[in-house]
Amino acid sequence: MSGLLLRLYYPSSAPTTPSSDTVSRWARWFPLPQYANGYLRYKFASMGPLVPLLGRIFVWLSGDPRYPAEEGARYQRDSNRRPIVVFSHGLAACRTSYSFLCTDLASKGYFVAALEHADGSACLRSLKDKKDAEIEFKYQELLEQGTPEYEIRNRQVKYRAGEASYALDILEEINQGKLDNTWFQNMVEDEVETFRSDVKDNMNLDMAVIGGHSFGGATTTLCLATDPRFKAGVALDSWMFPLREEKLNYTSPGNLLFLNCEKFQGTKNLETMKTYEGSLDNEVESNVLTVLNATHYAPTDIPIIMEGSSAGSLYRMIGGGGDTTGGLSNWDNLLLFSELFHSWIQKCLGLENTFVKQVANQKEYLRYGIDKQ
Q1: Is the preceding peptide bond at 299 cis, omega within 30 degrees of 0?
Q2: Best CA proximity match to 159, nearest among 273, 39, 3, 42
Q3: Does the pLDDT of residue 351 top 70, yes or no?
Q4: 305-314 per-position pLDDT tens digit
Q5: Residue 259 bridge partners (DSSP)
Q6: Which of 306, 307, 299 is CA-nearest to residue 338?
Q7: Which residues face 235 on adjacent strands?
Q8: pLDDT digits (tens, 9 = 90+) for 17-36
Q9: What whole-number distance in Å separates Cα of residue 216 and Cα of residue 115?
Q10: Contact at 8 Å (CB) between 333 and 100?
């Protein structure tokens, strides 16, 4: 594997009095303007040369959003080593598509490594062959209609799982204070050295977790079956097609939670997922949990960004939507996904057992099991 790109979230102290300078260091949701082109290209590839123009309009309508995670912030060291979450994005997404979830998990005490996969599934992948080189771009590999898809997606999911495992290798080096193989973007040398010193020996590699959405859900499933360093996993509205013909050496439920969105899941996808369904213990009757009336994009930042900006009409045009009748609001869905993700990890790692209580508190919007779909 030639390289790896990730955004690392971690706990830090909030400034006592936020200033305009603080806000200016908040991370951009579009890492670069070209990422807007990448998102739109997935839906409007036929518009070819017009996509860059649409991308600029997309950034403008959305307000070029930032989120409250300061780049290069001072790490808040803890007396206990912190668990690690490696997060795998979905098809046509990237390392910032789940910024709320990753930021919220970091605020709860995790290191969260949000990958940007190089398998051709990301809306855009930034590439550099050396630290000071110009950034090059690899856009998503779009398949022509009628192209046999399974072998391509199966190859990609295996590459993605390899990247997730490689992320643990890199995080282990960082935990040892070794940064020779790591480049930091938008951080000066003194900040990098402070980060190295603060983070050293504060990651708990024995409490590594894998999570992901859609294609990243299949990646999560494969990682738990192939890399024993991952102790638990959360697969958000998994697209199981890339694993449909795989016979994994896997014992269900294996600390794996499938957290589905009702509006996306279909019969064939659930048939594959059924292979990995099981009861964790007497309290959890199934490791498959469905959020009722939730759409496929619900675990991402996209609904909130569209809802809070002038880009909402564009979002609906490409197949998105607002809150669903009878379901939670977009904001409450994000909170629910984060709380269930966190409480499942805590339960599986033997830290805190509030998962059942979290489910009970939201029982109106949740349903256990596949056979009850």
Answers
A1: no
A2: 3
A3: yes
A4: 998 888 877 6
A5: 236, 289
A6: 299
A7: 212, 258
A8: 666 677 778 899 999 999 99
A9: 10
A10: no
Per DSSP bridges, beta strands 136-139 and 203-213 are: unpaired
Residue 272 and residue 218 in contact, taking contact as beta carbons nearer than 8 Å: no
Residues contacting residue 314 through CB under 8 Å, at least 6 positions apart: 57, 58, 61, 306
pTM, two decimals, is 0.94
321: tokens are 């939507």
Closest CA to 206 of 80, 340, 341: 80
Q: Give the integer Cα–Cα distance in Å for 27 and 29.
A: 6
Taking phi first (over 0 means left), then psi (-120 to 50 degrees means alpha), and beta for anything else, what does residue 211 get?
A: beta
Q: Most distant CA pair in the chain: distance in Å?
A: 57
| Helix (DSSP H) and strand (DSSP E) numbers for the chain | 12, 12
Report the DSSP pairing between strands 6-9 and 111-115.
antiparallel
- Classify residue 223 by burial, with Cβ atoms within 10 Å: 0-12, 13-18, 19+: buried
CA dist 289 and 367 (Å) reads 6
Q: How far is CA 313 from the centre of its chain?
A: 25
Rounded to whole angstroms, how far apart are CA atoms 351 and 232? 13
Q: What are phi and psi of 49, to 5 degrees?
A: -65, -15
